[in-house]
Description:
Layout: H1 2-12, E1 14-27, E2 30-42, E3 47-55, H2 58-71, E4 73-75, E5 88-92, E6 95-101, E7 108-109, H3 115-121, E8 126-132, H4 136-149, H5 153-160, H6 164-167
Amino acid sequence: MARDRKRQQDTDLQERVVYIHRVSKTVKGGRRMSLVALVVVGDGKGNVGLGMGRSTEVPLAIQKGVEDAKKNMFKVPVTAEGSVPHTVEGHYGAGRVLIKPAIEGTGVIAGGPVRPLFELAGITNVLSKSLGTDNAMNIIKAAAEGLKELSSPQETAERRGITVSEMFVGKEN
C-alpha cells in the first residue's frame, strides 16, 4: 500500500539537470575524468529536492543525482498567487541568494541555476538576486536553504498564538 503511494509520487515528479561539470583526479597513471551532475526534482506543488551525482558517464551521473534529490526533498510554502510568502535570504558557502515575493504576472525572475528550483517547486511569480559567488552549486544550495527558511502564514500565526486573520488586521494593500 505505502509502496504504491511512493511509486505514484515518483511518477508525478519532474526532473531537470541544472548543470553537468567535468572534473578530474590526478592519480599515478595520469588523470581520471569523471562527471558531476546537479539535478533538481519537484512535483510543481511545493515539493522540491536537490541532488548531486558523480560518475564516469553522463546518464549514470544524472541517475545518481535524481536519486539523491529524491532523498533530499523538502516542502516549500507557496501562496495562492504562486509566489513565496515573504522575503528571505539564503546562504551556503560564499553564495547568497535574495528571494522576494512578486505580484501575479511577474513570472520567475531568477538567474540560471536557481530558475529550475523555483519552477519545479511550483513558484510562478518570484524575484531573486544572486549575491556573492557565481558558482552554480553554491548559488542553488543557497536558494534551497532560503526556501527551507520560508514559513507559511498558518505556521507564523500558530507560532504567535493568533489566527491568520488577526495577523493581517491593520495592514493595507
